[in-house]
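Hi F.,

I've been meaning to write this up properly since the lab meeting, where we talked about keeping a consistent format for the predictions we share between groups. The idea is simple: the sequence comes first, exactly as it goes in, then the structure tokens exactly as they come out, then a line or two of notes. No screenshots and no reformatting. I'm using this chain as the first example so we have something concrete to point to.
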Amino acid sequence: MNTLSTNETRSHYLDNLKVALTVLVIAHHAMIPFVDGAGWPFSPSNPDESLPYMWHFLNTNAAFFMGLFFMISGYFVPKSFDRQGFGKFIFKKTLRLFVPFAVISAVISVATGTPESGHTWFLGTLFLFCLVYSIIRLVCKKSYDNPKPLSLIFVIVFAVIMSAGSLILRKIYNQDDWIYLWVYKFEPVHYLQYIMMFAFGVMAGRGEWFNKMSGTTGCTSLVIGLLLCIVNYLRGDNAWSGFIYQWFGAYESLLCVFLCTGLIWLFRKAGNWSGRFWKWCAEQSFGAYIIHLFVLLIVENILDPIWLGAAGKYLSVLILATAGSFVISWLLRLIPGVKKVL
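Output, unedited:
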């Protein structure tokens, strides 16, 4: 690999992590029909195509992967605002986030006959966060850099604060309870996580925390996060599972903060590769996220009459939908002007 500048190094490992996260989102949504199918517009016609144990996969993903998206997105916001200023920053975020949110919401709402944004709630929420950040910067005028590197103590305190807030929210709302404000929707039990992880990313961007993170902070966070994932996968119908369920607001908050921090460090150390294929994947990942719902539904319906076994059907859907989403994103980006949005 060629010698890289700091910005280029950051871009490679974070771009690769975003590609991995996009694939994980597709894998997550592809799994839903094989677990219980609740809220998903497709279910297998063959009842034997079921993978009930994989609720652990969905439960673990939901604990951290969208929080990590917000964390990475927040990381680039301060320097982008510094470079562009309020007007240009908001204009670009409108094109990149609000326009696809509005278009996909319109398509889904017409198709379902009810106001619905589907998976693009993320785009609407990220646009809202960016708007709030830009207004704060406009009022405060001054930015505040933090030259101190990220410490393990900060990660622990941050995780504890999120845990306390999440426990309170889960006394009021259940997971998968969504509040609708016309087409915009949000899930209260995870909204605090998204706000805080975006804020974490903003603070990290101000202080270049990702690039400066020590091995002690990164590796320790990764080990704790992975252990929490493993325990969540292994729990069954027993007292330990009941304990985790009772305190899941705290459990998933700890998992989210430690695993996300650890994955940033891991990809910086071991995922900082580059090349034409990986650059191509990074360029298509945003578009693939936006269109993957439609690609998944097409693939699921095409493969539905074919018997491949539950695991075989899931893997076939995942591979075809992932490849299709990235390729279609690439084709769409060949249209003049589309790259400004996708």
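Notes:
Residues 1-10 have pLDDT under 50 and may be disordered.
The longest strand covers residues 179-181.

If this format works for you, I'll send the rest the same way.

G.
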